[in-house]
Amino acid sequence: MIYSFPSYVPGIAIAIAVLAASIGVLLLWRRQPLVVALIAFGVSAVAGGLFAPMLAMDRVVLDDEKLEQTTGFWFAPTVKGFRLAEVESVAIGTARDRKNREIEVWIVKGRDGQTREIDPGDLWEMNGQDILRRLGEKGIDVRR
Questions:
Q1: Residue 91: count of CB within 10 angstroms of its CB
Q2: DSSP 23-86
Q3: Are the C-beta atoms of 64 and 83 separated by less than 8 Å?
Q4: How far apart are CA 66 and CA 112, in angstroms?
Q5: pLDDT > 90? residue 144
Q6: What CA–CA distance (Å, rounded) separates 5 from 14?
């Protein structure tokens, strides 16, 4: 199973990029200060060059071998997850992040006795219940 954002999510970032670029062109055409137009072009570059590809490329893959998430910027993706054959159980817990906010973590206990915490991304969290159900069907002890 491959989970990804609906196509309208990166589409929103593309729409913002096009709108910001249009505003930048309009500002140049109306001979507004160059700095203001450059800000609009900067917003366009960030939305279209960073966020749209990031949202389009985010994936969570659950197959017979692994649960793996690829997320982050297109030029420096982050991959996290685990191999199913190495996992005894999965539990959902909470932890504190760097800003002392409570976040969801997946506590993965390996067959070797080691435990590790995985901070799932937004896409993983959005599909968490379905992922847990499918992990249970694959014989992994799921604790909610």
A1: 16
A2: HHHHHHHTT--HHHHHHHHHHHHHIIIIIHHHHHH-EEEE-SSEEEEEES-TTS-EEEEEEGGG
A3: no
A4: 17
A5: no
A6: 14
| Nearest to 109, CA basis, from 122, 94, 123, 92 | 92
- Single pTM value for the model: 0.81
What the block records as the tokens of 9 is 């999510």
Please tell me what DSSP assigns to residue 5: -
Question: Residues 104-134: pLDDT tens digits?
Answer: 999 999 999 899 999 998 999 999 999 999 9
Bridge partners (DSSP) listed for residue 41: none
Give CA–CA dist 107/58, Å, rounded.
22
Distance CA 93, CA 28 (A): 52
Looking at the DSSP bridge assignments, the partners of residue 102 are 96
Is the torsion defined by CA of 53, 61, 87, 92 positive or negative? positive
